Amino acid sequence: xxxGILAAAAHANANSSPFTIFFNPRASPSEFVVPLAKYxxxxxxxxxxxxxxxxxxxxEDCGVRRYMGTVTGISDxxxxxxxxxxxxxxxxxxxxxxxxxxxxxxxxxxxxxADPYFYGLxxxxxxxxxxxxxxxxxxxxxxxxxxxxxxxxxxKEILEYHPQMLPYKVLxxxxxxxxxxxxxxxxRERERVLAPKEENNLQLLWxxxx
Length: 210
What we know:
Strand order of the largest sheet: 1-2
InterPro entries: ARF_dom, ARF_plant, Kinase-like_dom_sf
Low-confidence stretches: none
Distance between the termini: 104 Å
Order of helices and strands: HHEEHHHHH
GO molecular function, one term: DNA binding
Pfam family, one: ARF_AD
Family: Belongs to the ARF family.
Structural class: mainly alpha
Number of helices: 7
Keywords: Auxin signaling pathway, DNA-binding, Nucleus, Transcription, Transcription regulation
Number of strands: 2
């Protein structure tokens, strides 16, 4: 599509007069022609960081070709660019800071509460605060656990709910045997609890006569 055709179309649109454009998708860039309905719908599409999107373009090699990508950033929202928006300008500014692509640019909780958007609602001096969690708390994530360690951890968790399994512990135990024994204990306890109730139900159905 030539610049002269675009200028003629813009001039006709400014004068509210009809105009006709003949578009060849194989000879002209498709980004210059977008249906009005799709354009209006795209204005109300809510996008966020990390959202996947897919676009379709017609090329010379094939009829339709899809291109996929990821949203890596969002533009600033303000009442000047988004005139008539129902959102408060301070709220938009705070959201822009919270949704920053780089985590280093995002405010901490105390910094967010000190934002002018929360003026009169939040008091930083009386808000609870604590020190960051030490890295030693996440040491288990870097620890290399072997199969024997996993079995030992499972056994310790079983002992929390079934302490009677402690005498059966051996150095190299089979976890399947332990689980079978726990299942047996559970079934026995279940039968002990449900047996009186089932007997009472049978007496109601078939009462015993002296």
